[in-house]
Amino acid sequence: MESAKLSLTKKQAKEMREMKGGCKLLDNLNKRERQIQEIPASFASNKLPHVHATNKNLKPVEILPLLPDFDRYGDKFVTVAFDGAPTADAENYSKFDPSDRDAYESRAIMKACVASGSDPANPEKFLAYTVPSPDELSKDMYDENEDILYSWIREYHWDVSVSSC
Length: 165
Prior knowledge:
Elements: H1 2-6, H2 10-20, H3 22-29, H4 32-46, H5 98-105, E1 109-115, E2 124-132, E3 150-157
Antiparallel strand pairs: 1-2, 2-3
Helix pairs in contact: 2-3
């Protein structure tokens, strides 16, 4: 009975987001003047006592500043989530124990690729998923002088979709 009360239609959820500021809040924050006004407020709110989101009785032991990684600041990253182990059905890697496969997958590299097809105006975009070759795991991937061979496991086709409120 309680779960039936909690379920919302898409329309109700959208209305609730808008009431709480959802899209309109983002529109307001994108305005330069609004952003400038919010800067002093953000410094003031930072001086307030920190409160845990779900347990008001918890107190912080240490508060650390959140700073970007300035060495990697200019790099571009993509977050990828897999439904299953990407190497599970790969010929060379399917024989490995799952913990060994995890070791290879933790060193995987995804590379954006573009291939021209029949329509030069619309090239095919895909991500190549590669992992170290089976006998390369012992090599140091952070050593610039060490060459590591990678095996092409599969490619993922992608397209950028822009979502809006």
